[in-house]
Amino acid sequence: MEDPETITQAIANNVRAQRAHRGLTLDALAARSGVSRGMLVQVEQARTNPSVSTLTRIASALGVTVARLVEVSDVPVVRIVEKADVVTFDQGEVQAKLLVGADTPMILELWDWRLAPGRHHDGDAHPPGTREMLTVLAGELTLTVYGRSHVVKADSAVLFTADRPHRYANQGSEELRLVMVVAEPREAPDQ
Model's pTM, two decimal places? Predict the structure, then answer.
């Protein structure tokens, strides 16, 4: 498993390289992502371990996956991600594991989430056309999209449009575990 410093450095290198590849200034990336210029400087200089939300905003603004930003080395034609190499974001009683991701031909991410009872995670709006599919492995999910809540029980699945703010909440008494796929188009669909 990669140590946190290695991942932080990989994020710094990948964000800087992706920004340079697109010819974006720090100010332009800040405007596109909603992440402050100061935070972007911290990320690109490997002086901070950015949150999932911050990484998601940066990745969306750059048109790549979060997986691409945390990638330590180049991806071969076949990529097996061993358990020890899964990137984990631990926010106490909310944990997310980015199991694997790809950015061609479309942006795809496979996540494993765990939320303790009474906890929630607010997801930012993804780019237009983004969809999320998830299945609840244990517990009960209260998914809120556009202010409307939906209960998804264990062994059930849901598909929703994720180009608007959304919330994953565990309002039950046992741990919530879900597996999620985020599918984001490479280019925004015609409006």
Answer: 0.59
